[in-house]
Amino acid sequence: MRRLARLLLLAAAARGEDPLLATTKHVEALLRHDVDCLALATSIEPRSAFEWTELARQYLLGPTERDWFCAYLVTAGLARLTHLEYEKLKGEGTGKGQTRLWEAYNATYSLGMVITQPNILGTLTGEALVWCYRGVRTLERALDMLQELFGHYEWSAEERARLAEEAVVAGDLLAVFQESLGDYAEPLDVATYLDLPPHGNEPPEQVSCERWVDATEAGALYALYGDRQVADDMLSTVCEQCDARACPLRDLSRRRDELFRAWLGANNGPAPWEPRGDDVFAAAARYEVDEGPSIGMFLLRSSRTRRPYVDETPVLALALRAASRSNATLANSMRLHVMMHEGPVADLMEKWRAWVGALIGGVHLCRVGAVPPRPHNLNYLRKIFSALAISRRRAYSTIISLDDDILLAPDAILALLEHAPAAVAGPAARCAMVSPTISNGIPTAELFAADFFDDATTRSLQDCYAGTLRRKPVEGDALYSKGEEPRPLLYDVLGAPWDVHDWDPDFWWAQLWAAAPHLLWENVTSIGLGIHPVRTNATCQRLAFEAALRLVPRQFSTRDARNARLEAAPPGAYPYLANSVWATTPDKLAASLLRVDLHLYGHPFDEAGMSTVWLHERRARLCVVRNAFVLHPQYGRTLQGDAEAQMHAVAFGALSLREALGDDGPALEPPLQCESSRFARFRSRWSKQVPLDSPS
Hints:
alpha/beta; Spore Coat Polysaccharide Biosynthesis Protein SpsA, Chain A; 54% helix; disordered C terminus
């Protein structure tokens, strides 16, 4: 890959192109935009409240539609200014004080509206709850101001009616947002942009002038993700010692930071939870960086309240233990890093050390991005960026990313560790990305069925897929957003229904390729090209789930490898990877993260950028590790009941029994720490269900 990169740079130079601009132009443009916006927001040019409001409206709804960054900066500044002016004039009766409080209410309400834009709220719920709750608190403050207007000033009957109507509208809006949060509690232990980054304890990046473009790209990513000091150190070194073409990027990063700190100071400092009195990062894992492992596996942990069973029934931990007993050398080529967005993490680090010993590389508390939110500042992409930063510092040649609802059988872990590095890394790399066979994965659902399901189950699934294409969506199908209206993508975008009799995956991938310009470059929706009947039809998803669940006891307790192999499909075979679990190299991941133009609020995940850059623009291969038993219970919350917890419990029981029987070889040290009652319950239950003739 590095040889290819050098060739691309040489080719660009031959064409008279700047080798740096080709890769960092999107980040540079964003930094320049931020500088201009911050300069405007911090200017001392006299403007009326109306003029400031109109400016914010233009950013939010005008030619720069949905520029929530600038809209937030301007509106937050206006809210702060009008409130300060009111405090000076408070108590002056129905005169200027009354007017200023009304202006302060309008500005605060507008600020709440900016924060709680529907797409932001939908993206952040359950992931970056701090922003949702910031918006809710802002709207609550606006209602308090209305009550103050009611209670302290005189109004005509007509004016009071208008105020009452305003209070109803604001109250209803607040109720909607509070309802959207559901059962999600505000996180109490959050690392903010004022705290050290999760990779702060890693060794610093080394800058080589022989690879100055790579170093500048890395510096650009640090600047993009708010790691100001690291960005400045790297970019300054390149600028002053290697190539002056890095200087403008360094200067833009510095200027943006200066202006942002000025804006923050002028707007009453950080949010109420920022900074914290205690050192939240002090609880993060402190560890020695060991040499040798070349693979970093990163578990992207969601909210603990959302998936508590990930820690209560630690399937991944037991699967890693079993994999290590089967092949210690292969397992030791990997270190696991648990990426969290809420803490504390000290107890979890102790648990993981007890569970998997030296295989744990660290538990990391990833920060909420800098105010205000942009897609790359949300939880998911910040965890991915932190994974990249840690990988660069530890010299991992391969990155494996893993969502916390994914379950990997021990043999699947070993298969991924064996086949992925050679496929994506080094001069003989054939693949841009590698995916195992995932039970309902896109595009691996058919491959998983071929490898693991019997003929009758496979036919049932194929009939369900084909039936989905023959009819309009009905109640029970998953609906996704296209533009402003919630409409089924299957019907409205792809053109279904079709007169098909049998399920033909090639036909399906062709439809997705045709839809790519709309769903990738023009308007990335919440699922990109991750569309398939197994996702859009709840019946198909239930069939896949139940069929896979029946196989869990045997697959998670077996000691026999299933002849796992790497299948390298030709370029253009698959239009998209809905990458709940994937492997690539740090360089390839960095190339997609630099594409800020592909980071949208509706899809703030790595898969859109990875699929667009590598599968479409560069026509690279997506490869699949066949016969790798990997489970993804469901998409979203399509299935009724707690399907994810059910599948975790079954897998945990099978793995617990496997360990209890003890014929895998010597156990890892220290031994598994587990509540005796829970362990006994699972052992008793699953000893009755695992077939006696199984490899257990």
